[in-house]
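Pilot study result, target chain (429 residues):
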Amino acid sequence: MDYDAILIGAGAGGYLSAVRLLKHKKKVLIIEKDKFAGECTNYGCIPSKALIEMSESIHYLETMPGINMSYKVDMKEWQKWKDSMIARIRNGAENLCKSLGAKIIYGTGKIVDKNHVSVNNETFSTDYIIIDTGSSPVKIKGIDDVYYNREILAIDNIPEKLVIIGGGYIGIEMATAFKKLGSDVYVIEMKDKILPEVEEDLSKAVDKKLRSLNVNIILNSKVLSVKKDKKYKVSIENHDDITADVVLMSVGRIPNTEDLGLENLNLALDGRFIKTDNHKRTSVDNIFAIGDVSGAPMLAHKAFYDGYIAAENILGNDVVVDYKAMPFVVYTDPEISFTGRATENSNKIPVLANPRSLTMNQTDGFFKVYYEKDGTVAGAGVAAPKSSELMGEITLAIEAGLSLEDIFLTIHPHPTVSEGLKDVSDIND
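Predicted structure:
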């Protein structure tokens, strides 16, 4: 065989798999049709958080008592900085793989059979194949010439009026950011609440804050058409038309499985996803699928984890996935995070009880933990400043089978937002 493993896609999971295999002296070929490090680094997680961080910094100073400020946002200059920052991350990942001996080819990889992959009119043989082709935005037939995540994050000016179709996590993150950057924002959601995939109290915390910021939220409504002339005209069921400078479509993502050669293998599918077992192995025993293409949740850290599992099994180790504590974050205001699962037993305290949050002039949100009858930590939902940074502690507690008392008796630095976890874990108070 030419290679021990061929990876189709160099996204979050793909390059982590490659690094794992390369460190164990495996011969690896990585095929990538776009940019190394995938959607998250180049077009999703990283650029969106950079935009959100800028908007939060501006809003933080604007709302801090005693501060009067004026500023100008030069989006073209910001985009140059953002692109250079992303390039640093992308090049670091690619150079690491190269330094460990990986062969990298840019082009569209297609599976010929279980042991052969073609790219750029060449065919290579391999013992194993890992599919990490990611996902793409859902597009609605008849609604064309709108923005998706890639376009909105490459924008070189702040739109005066922005309409966002879809109230999921991407749409709501962008709604928050652009409102704080000065846009008049409308969110249109078909369901009866924004963030429909999030538990009720977390969703309500974000909804309340968005409305206080004067974001226009239109629920239980379907977009009938989007037409573009000099501006966009958005027609909505049971609502007046809206004219906007930019329309962002954010109604979900679908796995990239087309033009991959799956028909040559007759791989089992789970809906549109590639079906895998708990080793991330597909129905063909030497082929693995990881990340978005292998099923929800579509999260970069899930792809990292999947990549590790696949690589370990290729190395001959019997390692299985365990998603019982999968952290999920929505970078809104307040920032909301959850991990584990909800149980009948919970404890909840307001952010107002956390001194560090008050020093940041952040008063919205709460800390909530779920636990079993014996006190074992089962999960948590937090709406608080930088709540994403707290999820590692709770996730570890769940994985390790720790109790709320273990968290409460752990000395947390003061003053920190993390003390909220300590305080909410005192169920005997």
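One observation from the pilot: The chain has a mean pLDDT of 97. A full batch analysis is planned for the follow-on phase.
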